[in-house]
Amino acid sequence: MSADPAAAADSTDQAGAAENGAESGDSGRRATPSGEKEAPARGRGRKQSSARKTRTVALTLTVTGTAEGDWQADLVHGTNRLVRGMPIPAAAVARAAKELHPDIESGIEAVLSEAREQHRSRMQELEAELERVKRALADLGE
């Protein structure tokens, strides 16, 4: 095993240079056989989308109804209240609910049905009272 001291020293210097390059934070750079460092290999970056970003708008519409059939709406944009307590006809609420979703429609329709029943009951009471008043008036001899 005869070894040339100059060749052994050259190979040791190359191995040491490669190790030193990795230890000194030059990751991505490789030592060439002549001891020079190459530029890091460039990987493919993430391709940018050509689609436009969609800007979302946060609006909160709150529709409140009573069992009597009175409806009102509140509209908030971010922290700004745009509409407060605006009266809404029950028919408009029913149409909007029908357009939105069957679950929403069924919930609102239940409230509207209850309001209809209360109004029918009240109407019958008033009709009965009207008949009593008409009879009383007739008894007074008009």
List descriptors.
142 residues, alpha+beta, 3-stranded antiparallel beta sheet, 3 strands, 16% strand, rod-shaped
Helix and strand topology:
Elements: H1 5-23, E1 59-65, E2 71-77, E3 80-88, H2 90-100, H3 102-139
Antiparallel strand pairs: 1-2, 2-3
Keywords: Coiled coil
Biased composition (Basic residues): 43-55
Region (Disordered): 1-56
Structure in words:
It is a single chain. By secondary structure, this protein is an alpha+beta fold. The chain has a domain of 81 residues. Helices cover 48% and strands 16% of the residues. The protein is built from three helices and three strands; from the N terminus they run αβββαα. Strands 1-2-3 form a three-stranded antiparallel sheet. The longest helix is centred in the last third of the chain and has 38 residues. It is rod-shaped, with a radius of gyration of 42 Å.
Shape: rod-shaped
The class by helix and strand makeup works out as alpha+beta
Strand content: 15-25%
How many alpha or pi helices? 3
Residue stretches low in confidence (pLDDT < 50, at least 5 long) are none
Q: How widely separated are the two ends?
A: 145 Å
Largest sheet: 3 strands, antiparallel
The number of distinct β-strands equals 3
Give the strand order, joined by hyphens, for the main sheet: 1-2-3
Overall helicity? 40-55%
Secondary-structure element string: HEEEHH
Mean pLDDT: 77
> What value does the Rg take, in angstroms?
42 Å
Structure summarized in a few sentences:
The chain is α+β, with helices and mostly antiparallel strands and 142 residues long.
